[in-house]
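Can't paste images in this forum, so I'm doing it all in text. The chain is below; anyone willing to post the predicted structure tokens underneath?
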Amino acid sequence: MNAEDVVTITSRGMITIPLSLRKRFNLKPGTQIAILEDEGKLALIPLVDIEQIRETFPTLAETSTIFDKSRKEELELER
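Text version of the structure:
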């Protein structure tokens, strides 16, 4: 554990996640985090934003178009 990974709970029960960890885990203002308890330990689990998923993965129509184009090129190479 790094010294920068140690945080203090405020009187209102809040903590500040160190910048290095926020950058590493792409945590931005508004990111929701689940707090899970397991065998006396707490784990912070960022919840995935559906918009991030949409930006990361193509739509079904785009995937189909990409697949069709790739398959067409493959068939042409086989000739």
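The chain has a mean pLDDT of 83. Helices lie at 19-24, 50-56, 60-78.
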